[in-house]
Amino acid sequence: MSLPDLLALLTTSINNLTAQYASAGHALPSLDTPYDSKSPAETFRLGNPAVVDATKEIIAAASQIIVAVRDPVVGLFLSAHSFNVPACLRVASELNVPEILREAREQGASAEKIASYSGVDAGLLERVLRLLATHHIFREIGPGIFTNNRVSSAMDKGKSVKDLLERPGERFSEPQSGRAAHVEFLADECFRSASVLADTMRDPKASTPLLQAFNQPPTANLFSFLETSPARLGRFSIAMDVTMTTNQLADGYPWVNLATGDKKLVVDVGAGMGGYIMGVARQLGSSDKIEFVIQDREKTVVKARKNWEEHLPEVVTKGLVKFEPQDFFNAQPSRSAPVSVFVLRHILHNWPNAKATQILRRLRDAASAETQLLIIDRVVRPASLVESAHPEIVESIPGAKLAPAPAPLLPNWGVAGQMMYHYDLTMHNLLGATERTVDGFVALLRGAGWELVRIHRDPHASQSSNLVARPLL
Predict the structure, then answer these.
(1) Which residues of 109-143 are buried (b: 16+ CB within 10 A; e: fewer)?
(2) How confident is the model at residue 74 (pLDDT cuts 50, 70, 90)?
């Protein structure tokens, strides 16, 4: 590892980033100012490939430099201490600190003032917020006085403090509140489950970490556990729906081309609130060439219908979307017309291979020779330079092979691509499941009668990819 090479890459990437913003007439968003997802600078950041690439290189190089120069023992201990960050994030979100500080404006608020809304210990809250501020989440602008910054304000649930306190059951009712719901879910169910990972690994008879952490019976699972608490279930639903409420990888599947000729049938299996398909319907505009079916548990389907009636009522009125209670482990309903596309968005990563195979076989049984399967999931990259144990297979699938990060960075972009590895272990801790590599998807699909034919990989190297499969004949 060469520090001068890392520094050169870091310097070049910073220069590229600043030049991109300058050429577009935008200022680089300041860490000290609140986050505004609708600002031109933020929109530019997400939509410009050169900015995305430069950002990824800066994160990867800077983090690798830190690891290279820091005392390894200190680095090890800091990593072991990092559990305090999600614990403190949960405190901040549940006590509505971002909203209190938003209303306090630039002058901020003291820990005593913030604590007065909930009655918690002000001294302890000050220490919680100081740790977060040290991690660039909130700012401490005077001893014990805090204000929001770009990171902390991203947790703002978009409601007044008065509303949050008077109607705590409606904390996540605003569209932007999904980010806070996601943070709380990660810092609560996911964090507590991770704490017993080692215990369950050493005990071959143990249930999943989630069931052990929350003292649930071995016959339970994440979904049955959530259904015992309306508050947890509601938070989870909002947290999951916010991950992709639009067709994020619009060019990952040719929906526009599909909406030609005869009417097509698209079935979104385990669709939740139907946010992804709603994004597709919006993309197609007034097209009536595709009929959508939203499948999920009965309670979820009822909520999905209400969601569509509120946000896209014209599609419901035209009869272009139907809502179908369905357990995806059971046989698909018989239909008068073949299904053109089955969609599995963030479904397979919820299940170990045996269960995932069962889901896929049910769809294969209901597929025609022309049916396609669209899988929206993360594709995990090994940290090694060689991405597959079967390179000849990967070479034959468009989009399956990704170029490694530039040396001397880790081939998988290191910390800049770490999100997928966090989610991989989270899937295990919650469900005994997994995020899969390309090799994992190829083997899983073949075992269930499908053939992987194309992958549209996410350029951010952390979000979902679109995988397209067809029936093995």
Answers:
(1) bbbebbbebeebebeebbebbbbbbeeebbbbeee
(2) very high
